[in-house]
Amino acid sequence: MSSQPLAGNIRPLDVFSSIADDLRQVETAIEAALSTQETMLEEVSTHLLRSGGKRIRPALVILASRFPGVELKQVIDVAVAVELIHMATLVHDDVVDNADLRRGRPTVNALWNNQVSVLTGDYLFAKAFTLLADTGNNRVVRLMSEVVREMSQGELAQMASYFDVEQTEEDYYRRIARKTGYLIAEACRLGAVMAGVGEEQVQAVYDYGMGVGLSFQIADDLLDFFGDEETVGKPVCGDLKIGILTLPVIHGLAHAPRRAELRELILSRSIDDTAVARVKEILTESGSFDYARGKAREHIEKAVRALDHVPTLATRPALKTLAEFVINRKF
């Protein structure tokens, strides 16, 4: 692996200041896990590391483990595994979505090809599960296996729902729980499991993570409409153009005064910039964006209430601050 620093593009969050040293250990361990003598794999791995990321999921593993008397070493290994799984899903997602940009940088499939992307994602999954197996805790292996299964099902469900104007909010929530919620929730649960606390506390941090995960995805869906392309790191309104209907659109299809027009635009399966402008106008008029923001806030408030059940968790203030970041983020 190159000796040049790799973490320069990671955007640090103030909420993580209390675990900054731990996250530096995570970053070092990620680089070590991806170190290889295979030339192409080394190039791809270096590209992924240079692409950075917020490292929210490994941070959640650590934050959710901060109960009294916890040994950090195995928690770091689990945090690294969770991030490698997240990286693998992004590499595979970019193939599925035929995406050219991720975090403002070319995707693996854009720089190499789909075959390299698929195999790189498989490699990342294998490295992650090796780290989990090395903990000697079969439960963490099983939990993350279930997450990967759910994420795969969620991705397939999303593909099956492209331009489907009949889908409901229930369908949407089931899909985003699988695609986003479960991984964030399990990151929290794994931290508590590694801390060896009781099941009530494990469930509480899982519930926190699920609320954060659902809100994270709703916020992401809103950024798809209103985010700055340079800040978000990918084209705006990309989901809508390929037929992914998110919460504001589903709400508009059910409640907008101009819902027949909205339905016609989506069923055309040809959503250019002019059509996007019309969709945004319809959804603004119907209050669909405000509705989605309200739902994101509801999930965050529910997440924060779950922390009342873990009074001995030292990082509760940081987790509450992170929840606010998720709902107010610009990237």
Automatic annotation (TrEMBL):
Its cofactor is Mg(2+). One of its GO terms (molecular function) is metal ion binding. SUPFAM superfamilies: Terpenoid synthases. Keywords: Magnesium, Metal-binding, Transferase. It comes from the Bacteria. GO terms for biological process: isoprenoid biosynthetic process. The keyword ATP-binding does not apply. The keyword Thylakoid does not apply. Belongs to the FPP/GGPP synthase family. This is Polyprenyl synthetase.
